[in-house]
Design goal:
about 180 residues, mainly beta, four-stranded antiparallel sheet
Length: about 180
């Protein structure tokens, strides 16, 4: 194993677990916080790799980052090159693919994802902004494209941040007016 294979690119946390992305090894190691609480040697409970997902119909797995959300504590939104994989990890011995999203936005290397209870946004430079419904995520394993959102002649910033308000569910996106040079 080379140095790049061991390098942790990012971590995320949800529902008592830490998810450590090893981008160059194309692996997500999952650690139980309860088992690692004593700061002793901590080993992954399991790992998510291409071999793990191949039987679920995933043809390519190159994870770039992980998105978690308190409204969906047992779901990982895995940003990959070319797709967004939505994975139910409630049963650690039998992971369940909820959906795989492929859109023009996921074709862009640095696309952004925001998740709320019933909605998801995918945004990508310069002008891709898609709203999805998560209302049938658990019943039918389906994420539905609701609409392509207009930016009203504005352009997303290259690493635009996308967030939902905890207060009222309003979505916020970083965009700039290239003519007036204001954001």
């Amino acid at each position: 194993m080379g140095d790049y294979d061991a390098e942790i690119s990012m971590i995320a946390s949800s529902n008592g677990y830490i998810y450590a992305l090893r981008k160059y090894a194309k692996t997500i190691d999952v650690y139980s916080l309860a088992k690692c609480a004593e700061f002793s040697t901590c080993r992954p409970d399991f790992s998510i790799t291409y071999a793990t997902l191949k039987g679920m119909g995933i043809r390519y797995f190159s994870p770039q980052s992980i998105v978690t959300d308190a409204q969906h504590p047992e779901v990982l939104f895995i940003k990959c090159l070319g797709s967004l994989i939505i994975l139910d990890i409630d049963n650690k011995q039998k992971l369940h693919l909820l959906d795989e999203i492929m859109s023009p936005a996921t074709e862009v290397t640095n696309y952004q994802v925001a998740v709320s209870k019933n909605r998801m946004l995918i945004a990508a430079y310069p002008n891709h902004l898609y709203e999805y419904s998560l209302e049938q995520l658990y019943t039918y394993n389906m994420v539905t494209l609701v609409k392509t959102l207009s930016l009203y002649n504005m352009t997303l910033q290259p690493s635009a941040d996308v967030e939902f308000s905890d207060y009222d569910g309003t979505a916020y996106v970083n965009a700039v007016d290239p003519v007036k040079n204001v954001s």
